[in-house]
Amino acid sequence: DTAVSQTPKYLVTQMGNDKSIKCEQNLGHDTMYWYKQDSKKFLKIMFSYNNKELIINETVPNRFSPKSPDKAHLNLHINSLELGDSAVYFCASSPLNQPQHFGDGTRLSIL
Amino acid sequence: AQRVTQPEKLLSVFKGAPVELKCNYSYSGSPELFWYVQYSRQRLQLLLRHISRESIKGFTADLNKGETSFHLKKPFAQEEDSAMYYCALRRSNYQLIWGAGTKLIIKP
Known about the structure:
The complex is a heterodimer. By secondary structure, chain A is mostly beta strands. Chain A has strands at residues 4-7, 10-13, 19-25, 31-37, 43-50, 53-57, 64-70, 73-78, 87-94, 101-102, 106-110. Chain A is globular, with a radius of gyration of 13 Å. Chain A starts with a strand and ends with a strand. Chain B is mainly β. Chain B is globular, with a radius of gyration of 13 Å. Classes of the chains: A mainly beta, B mainly beta. At the A-B interface, strand 5 and strand 10 of A face strand 6 and strand 9 of B.
């Protein structure tokens, strides 16, 4: 199956913990993205990598750190989780000037 | 300022009625616009893009540069059209600017 896959789908953890969300795409795309969708369904870009280089870095707390070990992977590490981090996080990929393909999302719940 | 505005957070219409989801944009360059859809518990997916000028699932959208709009239309709504719809604009640096989304509910 060609797709953008994220793991885990659900993540429930306590405040203060550190967690990672993984994203992999086998579509051969050179650009990957992380989005945050809040409880009101508002979608906000967080980061974008093109050929493993950071090209978009929106105003996001530095507790969030993306890592792209290769073009097919863009992982999101979050330190010292806070209540406000509860959201659905979507990974996406695309060729640089083409529409984005999204993963299923990771629902992060902070207790 | 560059922005995408979807003025309706929620739109509810009866099955068989026409649907129009509004999208207005503000952008100084030549815009490329998209509509994405997110069905319940599914991933976001591209519905259509203005340069394709095609109809997908009965939906069409025309870019009106004079009115800076890219409204999504369907003449006869179906229950399976119920979803969140996002309008997005691609900037020259390839970043997408997203609207806040409109939740479309089709009543039987």
